[in-house]
Design goal:
153 residues; elongated; 3-stranded antiparallel β-sheet; mainly alpha; 7 helices
Length: 153
Amino acid sequence: MTVRLVHNVKDVLRKMRATPKEVLAHVDPVLARGAQKIARSAKSGAPKAFSTLTNSIRAEKLSELVHQIVAGTNYARAVEEGTGPGVFPSIQSIRDWMQVKGISGDAGAIAKSIAKKGTPAKPYMGPSYDEHIPKINRGVVAAVRRGMAEAVR
């Protein structure tokens, strides 16, 4: 599961073409901090049965102005969006989960129920993005202004 943070407001891009060096020096750190904030928030909001998902969430810089937040497990999207019926989970993963949660019972029955009904969504990445993006956008606009002011000095 990956969420990419790219700011492509036309006005920002137009201004950046005029003075890219100064503006980039101000905007990219804002995006980097924003990506880190989203990653921390997603870690906080992710379900923590084993903390594997939580520990896999990280911010990465791909290039200037392109940062992404990655949840590096093969089931991250299933947690975020839920699953529909038809997927039979690993019995061992169900047993492990039951042990961590202190649940006794038949892991096979739980797996059959999951395969029949699916699993509910437990969003952690989307809410984190939605929470922080308004402030990141304001920060980018302020950074462009600082960069432009520096460029015309």
